[in-house]
Amino acid sequence: MALPQRKTDIGPPHYKQFLPPVIQKNYGKWKYHEVIDPGLMVHVAESGDKLWTVRVASPRILATDTIREHCDIAEKYCGGFFRYTTRNNVEFLVSDEKQVEPLKKDLAKRGFKMGGIGAGISNVVHTQGWVHCHSACTDASGLVKAMMDELMPYFESKRLPSKVRLAVACCVNMCGAVHCSDIAVVAVHTKVPVIKHEDFKNMCELPTVIGSCPTRAISPDPANKSVKINAEKCMYCGNCFTVCPPISIKDPDRDGIAIVVGGKVSSLRTSPKFSKLVIPYISNEPPRWPKAVAAIKHIVEVYAKHARKHERIGEWIDRIGWERFFSLTGIDFTFQCIDDFTFMRDTMRTSATFKW
Amino acid sequence: MKKYDTPLIDELEKGPWPSFVTEMKRAAKNNEMANDALGHLEKCYKTRVGYWKHGGIVGVLGYGGGVIGRYSELGDEFPGVAHFHTVRINQPSGFFYTSAALREICDIWDKYGSGLTNVHGSTGDLVLLGTKTEALEAVFAEYSSRGWDLGGSGSALRTPSCCVGPGRCEWTNYDTLDLSYALTQEFQDEIHRPTFAYKFKIKMSGCACDCVASIARADMSIIGTWKGNIEVNQDEVKNYAKKGMDINAEIVNMCPTQCISYDGKELKINNAECSRCMHCITRMTKALRPTGERGATICIGSKAPIVVGSLLSWVIVPFIKVEPPYTELKDLIRKIWEWWDDNAKPRERIGEVIEMKGMRSFLEAIGQSPIPQQIKEPRKDPFMFYTEGDIAAFKAKEAEEKKTGKFKF
Questions:
Q1: What's the rounded Cα separation, in Å, for the pair B22 and B16?
Q2: What is the pLDDT of residues A282-319, one digit of tens each?
Q3: 0.95 cut: is pTM over it?
Q4: In CATH terms, is domain A15-110 a member of 3.30.70.3340?
Q5: Is the ipTM here above 0.85?
Q6: CA-nearest residue of chain A to B178?
């Protein structure tokens, strides 16, 4: 069959055609909303019209048949209208209150998990991992699955002092906002890369490779028509590998994961914050990463016990101090926690006041 | 049909959270590419390394992006993933869909690809995972003829994205859905034909809650704000108190500027001192709402750690009106790109270039004056540049003071 005529530079379809009638009518005229339970909220318009949202979890990697199942459900209860969220949840948009309970029942029967709204744990922002990325030093989807199996109660029902945003990055490129999450996992390399000198001249540009190194550890190696890496300066970021395939940094026995905490992106109460390193290394242990999962759950539980209502993890730690965070969690404080890259002067303590 | 034993990733079908392995198996039922992707992933889990090669240059005629080349080192062992390219479909604003639209997307993808998707990728595109080089033109013809276009990749404007905004949120200060659509349409060439030094991301949030994390992961963050007062509905305040809210602990004491007071009956806000952080409004949404002039704060430069550390976006324009046809904003974006283009080395994000060249050079180029709203604190070192013009202006001011007999600092 002949292909249809292609079009270029048309951009995405206009969003208006995808908005349910209740949104078309009340567009920009919403008055308030209420969270009824972690899987259900209602938005009320100035006109008095109401829109119910039922949120369900998704593993982000979806088979087309699962998307079709979302379509089936939306057609049955929502006039075919639904949306996805920036954290990969599915939201069914219901304009008839009578459809809410039947929809929830149907979703439960099909095995969909409702939740993620309000002061708990929503879906995890994550990267491609071994499923589809060249740069991955672990699998992101697997880590997310293992973490969320353990944290499920906080998605579906259990409440926390405030929301806890989780993220997983399969390398330090950190696609997604991993560097500003309440708790995030970032996979790290820990060894100096190995260079296949014979391929360098055919596959890499010398200035680009030298320029890619944040610590200036790379210099020309004229004898090999390649480059050399100063092991004392290399911090294993892998940026040289990104620009030059013959530089190999993968090492299954040494690649691992680090845990960072205390970041946020909203400006509520306090300014947005970067996440900070607390656990520098846990071995990469697929398929269930038991130690990493236990560490995250432990941090969530200590936070739940000690934080005040509405305090995010970073705000709680700012109030109690990092020394108290380490003593409450029992996490070992290591040299890696002291910045020796670009932020040392801003992160060392410059007063003789602290707690024991 | 089952092709490989996958004991390790089968472990990830256990437990209550929805399983991506189950999704891959669902796609693999009628799709050889998805089947090989399963075997390929099992091997990664077994050896604890990945086998994808660096992206190659593949794409569709006339575009320099939108498709990310992906090849496996293990093409002989898993021929279905020898080529496994990603196609980025530009999502509609706010990720709203109808079932009819998504069914169409799925049907085409089953015909040409692996049947696997990411809904959505981190930047916002609807990501189709895994197709072969020879299918790309057909995939593009099928989608574009039905009104869907490719998103950005490489050193280009990446697909803009936004929060749900006026579609379903009472807090938004501008029409994020419309602005996202308008900018995407305005800059089609910049999205599809990479001519920048590196990637450039634009994200739009309607308020300081920043539900798309624009402040952390967009070279240009457009965050809604307002200039008027917060209107208080005292009856609703009473209702919150009645329902058990400890207003002093949860609202008054958590206000960063301490501009709220509550005497057990009435909530008062000293609006002049409010910094518009949104805390009180989000906690008492029925009782409090912003009024007056609406617009956005423009921040610039955020990015992930590579190369020299993460950046959060910096405030450059504290307040700008955001109304169609968005001429002022579009002009500003073009000026920003022009300065970046003049000053960046390859693979330098705009935040990094501003750090190298100095904020003054950037602000002057885009026509913005210095204003305290841009900074957390003034510089703490005495190493400053003075232009001849700066000194002349200081001297002129002093000459004026001598005439009037009054100092102006």
A1: 12
A2: 999 999 999 999 999 999 999 999 999 999 999 999 99
A3: yes
A4: yes
A5: yes
A6: A15
